[in-house]
Amino acid sequence: QSGRTFDFSFTEPRFMGLKVSAGVDVYHRINEETATSFYGSEATGGQFRVGIPLTSNLSGTVFAGMERKIIHDGDPTATPPLPTDSWLVVDGREFYKGFVGYTLTWNSLDDNKSPSEGLLASFTQQYVGWDHNLIKSEARARYFVPVIEDSGIVASLRGQAGIINDLSGSGVHSLEAFRPGSQLIRGFSGIGPRTTHGEYLGAVAYAGLSAEVQFPLPGVPESYGLAGAIWADTAWIDGVNTPSLVNPNGGPANTVAANSIDVPWRTSIGASLIWDSPFGPLRGDFAHVVNKSTADKTQVFQLTMSSLF
Questions:
Q1: Fewest CB within 10 A of the end CB: N or C in the chain?
Q2: Whole-number mean pLDDT of the chain?
């Protein structure tokens, strides 16, 4: 979602002389209404985290925090009534959540910036309570291998998956559901279950697999920091949030658009231009969607900051 974000992070690499890192993250985020979310929100929160090395390749992080979120939307009870854009929330409602969790990270890469060999994997699990009652679990992994030694041509295979287990008995609210997008499968700007009004509900489960080959551009000096890539992505998205089908404004219940879930598997292929810029690694992805649900929104090109996951 578009909006404004203020984030402050502080990390102490060694805590009390031990090889233990500690940090504090504080944020204030304002998200505006977009084509994928018919309501805006203002969230303020923070967390405390501690990182612990377990072995030479394995590290762990534990964290705990809280957040307050205010919903901004039209108000049908005002005089005169303001237009109601969202069928999922009520204007002015506040949501509070507290969370605690951990992350395990395995890193055997030969180079954390431009790896050519090794495995990077992480598993995160957190409990979210207060106005919610659920457990979120997410796993990511990417394996790198050189295609030809010392050629700069590197192949990688990336996998990721997530699931939300509801403990309340009433389902997962859309505010806490997964909103998978281009970070899961390239070539899409809007993907997953939505209402017949066109508003995204989010999902409670997803999985994705991506294969990529990165290579230096022929005839371009290495000092320019340019590289190319070809890739193929596939993803599975499922799960509809039952609380989100209840109309909080008192009108008829929401219904899921059948054409938003008629094809759970999505597939895309494409090519990328990657630049190791002074501001960080940028990449432009040109995508062709091979398989999609009828209502999915696609995009041919996107510009993002490149990341290992």
A1: C
A2: 88
Q: Who contacts 101 (Cβ-Cβ below 8 Å, separation ≥6)?
A: 62, 63, 64, 124, 125, 126, 127, 136
Tell me the Ramachandran region of residue 183: left when phi exceeds 0, alpha when psi lies from -120 to 50, beta otherwise: alpha
Euclidean distance between CA atoms 283 and 286, whole angstroms = 10
Say if CB 288 and CB 259 are below 8 A apart.
no
Q: What is the pLDDT of residues 155-189, one digit of tens each?
A: 999 999 999 999 988 888 889 999 888 889 999 98
Q: Residue 201, CB half-sphere, CA atoms under 13 Å: how many? A: 29
Would the pLDDT of 59 be above 70? Answer: yes
Instruction: Give the chain's radius of gyration (CA, Å).
Output: 21
CA 53 to CA 174: how far, in whole Å? 35
Secondary structure element (H or E) that encloses residue 25, with its range: strand 21-31
pLDDT for residue 239: 72
Across the range 92-100, mean pLDDT stands at 96
Determine how many CB atoms are found less than 10 A away from the CB of residue 31: 18
β-strand 40-53 against 188-190: which pairing, if any?
A: unpaired
Q: Are strands 280-291 and 301-305 parallel, antiparallel or unpaired?
A: antiparallel
